[in-house]
Amino acid sequence: MSFWTDKTIEPKRSYRFRLKSINGLTIHDAKSIPWWNAKKVDKPSYTVSTNKYRLINHEINVPGIISWNPINIEIVDMGGVIKDLLAQLGSFGYSPTQAKLGLDTGLSKATAMDKIGNLTIEQLDGDGKPLDVWKLEGAMITEVRFGNLDYTSDEIISLTLVVTYDYAYIEETEIK
Fold this sequence. Notes:
The protein is mainly β. The protein is built from 3 helices and 10 strands. A hairpin with a 5-residue loop joins strand 6 and strand 7 (130-137). It is globular.
């Protein structure tokens, strides 16, 4: 029997999610609360590399290293977000003035991780209760795209954050 005819089963919906930063990125001084201005977020994914070994006239593929792929987070520009993100870049250790003079000291992973914290992506059911809770450990923003301007469109401006992380896992939830 498929879920189409069973009224007790409801598939997961892509628009039911909540994105949280545990101890970090301050967008309009909103620490540790959901990012309600998030329009889209990729769920974590990974890639397993393979190594080929040759046995006489035959190749055998064996698993190698697991790499967690970066995620994209699209957020609505609600005014002030760009300044907040540029301020965060400064707190990572980057200074446009120092870079211009060749005195840039470099970025630090510890400060970059402190600024966004460990991200949590919650996929919700129809009542707003978490079904899946993804935890991204060691997350840091590695790219920011400030959106596009277009005279032929009246869409809301959105920014894209590319977030790299060390690994992800699903936290146990009470609802299954």
